[in-house]
Amino acid sequence: MADDRALNLWKKNLGAVPAEVWEQTDVTVLILADNGLSELPEQIGRMQLLRTLDLGHNQLADLPKTLGDLVGLSDFLYLHDNRLASLPWSLGKLQKLRYLNISENQFSAFPEAVCRMSGLVELRATDNQLSTLPDCIAALRNLRELHLRNNMLRTLPQTVAGLLELRQLDLRGNPIETLPDGIAELPKLEKIDLRWIDTLQPPQWLDALAERGCLIYR
Predict the structure, then answer these.
(1) What percent of the chain stands above pLDDT 90?
(2) Is residue 1 part of a domain?
């Protein structure tokens, strides 16, 4: 868009965000990836026009609650490759956000604030230690892609049957033992990836999904 104003500080070896960054409140795209950041100041909440925020490839173990004040964040939020084990509940206010990447962190419990991000179209939560998904995942009614590769999931909640817009489901590398039958009823599912899984007795409905045109990788 013509009114975009990007501030690209990718891989500048910053260590900490310069204070003057927080004065540039007209920025719509802020890239702070790969800077060795271990903390993010509360001043991030000033950046009210942000639509895209990239905090990937840092050393963040916590995020400030004020990140949830960025209610205009609508395009991308990259939090991958950090040290996060939880997310502030306030992030649930980001209900316009379409893309969230929390891969390559230290989540053992799914951050339920994500369930309130009702605008999400794509969610990437690969390479964590998730052993379960909460029932509230069904609240993400606009979700088209759900990427869960390389976690510790043994099954999925029955409520995934409510993800009626889901096109792609990536479960590679999980110790999946069972899958809810409701997956077979997802009307728009185009691809389910079950590679690198040797614990699953394939349910009969997988063949029916394939006959319908859904790609099954296993």
Answers:
(1) 98
(2) no
| Buried residues in 57-83 as b, exposed as e (16+ CB within 10 A) | bbebeebbebbbbbeebbebbbbbbbe
Coil vs helix vs strand at 137: helix
Q: What is the pLDDT of residue 215?
A: 98
DSSP lists the bridge partners of residue 122 as: 99, 145
CA atoms of 131 and 148, how far apart (whole Å): 11
Which CATH number fits the domain that encloses residue 38? 3.80.10.10
CA triple 182-184-190, angle to 5 deg = 125
The pLDDT of residue 4 is: 83
- The 10s digit of each residue's pLDDT in 2-12 is 468 999 999 99
> Structurally, how many domains does the chain consist of?
1
pLDDT above 70 (res 1): no
Side-by-side strand order, sheet with 145-147:
6-8, 29-31, 52-54, 76-78, 99-101, 122-124, 145-147, 168-170, 191-193, 215-217
